[in-house]
Amino acid sequence: MLTIWTRPEAAPRAGLTRRNFLRVGALGVVGLTLSNLLRLRAAQPGASSRKAVIMIQLRGGPSHIDMYDLKPDAPAEIRGEFKPIQTNVPGFDICELMPEQAKIADRLALVRNLQMRTSSHNEQEITSGVLWDRKIPGNEGTPRPAFGSIVSKLRGGKLLPPFVNLGNTPQEAEDPGFLGPAYRPFIPSGQDLQNMTLAKDISHERLDDRKGLLRSLDGLRRDLDARQEVAGMDAYTARALDIISTPKVRDAFDMNLESQEVKNRYGLTANVRTYNAEFGVLRQFLLARRLVEAGVSVVSMQAFGQWDTHGNNFATLRRIVPVVDRGVAALVSDLHERGLDQDVAVVMWGEFGRGSRIYSINGGVPGRDHHGPANFVLFAGGGLKMGQVVGGTDPRAERPKGNIVRPQNVMATLYHALGIDPATALLDLQGRPVHLLDTREPIAELL
Question: 230 vs 164, which has greater pLDDT?
Answer without folding.
Answer: 164
